[in-house]
Design brief:
Structural class: mainly alpha
Largest sheet: none
Number of helices: 2
Oligomer: single chain
Number of domains: 1
Low-confidence stretches: 1-16
Strand content: under 5%
Mean pLDDT: 84
Protein name: ATPase
Length: 146
């Protein structure tokens, strides 16, 4: 009778503790579930990596286009820099031209002043001759007093 109790007790208790399944079977079930989960995880990671591969190819194309745009911008900036250098040289040259023109204008103004000074006596003589001519014409009765 002691054999029966020990035998029943050992099998019955193990079955009750593990839900009627022996521990090895429970362990295999957990391992199988873990393997299925790992397989699903690997499939998900493969899908993500595949999508990332497409994204990386597209990004590579985009970055290539951006590199081309930057090279074009660099060329344009170099041309603008050259143009600004030419503008700077032109401004210096124009400053010299303006200085020369100001000197010429100053000389012309001086010549005009000399000319006006030289013509004042002639204007006075002309006025005197005109006045004398009117006086003479009025004395001779040739003019009407204008």
């Amino acid at each position: 009778m002691a054999d029966k109790v020990i035998g029943n007790r050992g099998i019955g208790n193990q079955g009750d503790v593990y839900g009627g399944r022996p521990p090895e079977r429970q362990r295999f079930k957990k391992l199988a579930q873990a393997a299925l989960n790992a397989d699903m995880t690997v499939d998900q990671i493969e899908a993500i990596l595949s999508d990332m591969s497409d994204v990386l190819v597209d990004m590579n194309k985009t970055i290539g286009g951006l590199d081309g745009a930057i090279e074009s911008l660099d060329t344009t900036m170099n041309r603008i820099s050259g143009t600004l250098d030419q503008v700077d040289k032109t401004v210096v040259t124009m400053t010299d031209v303006v200085d020369r023109l100001e000197n010429i204008v100053g000389r012309v103004e001086a010549l005009v002043g000399i000319g006006e000074a030289a013509l004042r006596p002639i204007g006075a003589i002309e006025g005197a001759i005109e006045s004398a001519g009117r006086t003479l014409a009025s004395r001779l009765g040739l003019g009407n007093g204008q």
